[in-house]
Amino acid sequence: MARVVVVGGGFAGLAAAARLAKLGHEVTLLERSATLGGALGRVEADGFTWDAGPSWTTLPAVVRDLFRKSGRPVERELDLVPLDVVREHRFADGTSVRVPPSRAGQVAAFDALGPGLGQRWAEHVASYTEVWETLRREYLEVPWDPAAPSRELAALLDSRQTMHRLLRRRFKDERLALVAGHPAVAEGHDLRNVPAWAGVTAYVEQRFGAWTVEGGMARLADALTARLATRGVTVRTGTTVRDLVVRAGRVVAVDLGAGETLDADVVVVAVDPRLLPTLAPLVARTMPAIPPVVAHLGLEGEVPDLPHELVLHGDPLLVVRTGGGAPEGSSAWTVHGRGKLAEDLLRALARHRIDVRANVVTRLDRTPRDLVERWGGSPLGVVWQGRSTVRRRLGPTTPVAGVYAAGAHATPGAGLPYVGLSAALVAQAVGPA
Known about the structure:
The protein is an alpha/beta fold and 433 residues long. It is 31% helix and 21% strand. A 7-stranded mixed β-sheet has the order 7-6-15-16-17-14-18. The protein has a 5-stranded parallel β-sheet with strand order 9-2-1-13-19, with helices on one face. Strands 10-11-12 form a 3-stranded antiparallel β-sheet, with no helix packed on it.
């Protein structure tokens, strides 16, 4: 049995702690804020609730595997609900497309934009079949060595093809390129710096669909918090880890400041490694992805009937999420904004003929800085700066013996699937007691 300290109580930290405790280790989880969940939490005001971060996920098998490997199946605790529409995209020319999570549905949806566009889109998604299989086998489901990847994985990671170049060549219709590039752009990346293989998101969404949790995604964090108690994990909130204590190249404790240390055989870093002076030099060549500007809205009266997620293309790029909780006769929306935000988000929204300014009864605004300070780092992980970025991250292992990394900063993308898989990789690397 190893003494394991998990630093960070977001989804990655919760998942890693639950898995390692089930493997028989003595686990302590440390979280700087007063509550667990991080971006997988809820925001509440005046009877309204909103998802603080993600409002849906792909790859539900990641959540199911986490619960199965740490105790009871997820179906006994949460209702995972499939979405009929992944998202709707509206374009500057007034056209729009609702993207369902199936090949046939997507072909029909894009054909409605223009003859032949459905087949063109289907071919684009299908081109990622082998990419997905390589990533799954060699990178996402097994701990990998950045210095010695397999031949197949090295060929993929070392490709010079960028998403920007690929989409310009592949799509004459700009609307398809906007849809294909959106997931990366929404996470704060410049497509000129994103490897083409990262577009595998389109394949994952089509094949595995989009899912949400009945009652809000924060219920997932609640269920995992309860799972930690069941597994005997010691949880300390309001506790900041100042650094790692390393002797002879191996971690032996974490430094909590004021002369307090906590002994550890294994430390799982589920926060931005920059926060720990021992690890910061190892990730000095990476940069955090910047969160969007966010407005949580409590609305009363009649409002437009929108899907779970609506993307309004332009500058600024606006994303509207409608799945929040609200009193009878009211609605809870969250609006994200990126780009040239020279005006209020709701005024920008009104220019797209979605004017809810008169319906607002509650509003909470969050700047990117607010979010980073609230969560102790960016939940979007590392910004793409070219193909070498994937090797500049830490995780699941690190150069410091006994130290492992999980979370958005240890994966090739943000979102619950990548983060959940990173926690599974750490559990594999540490192994059973």
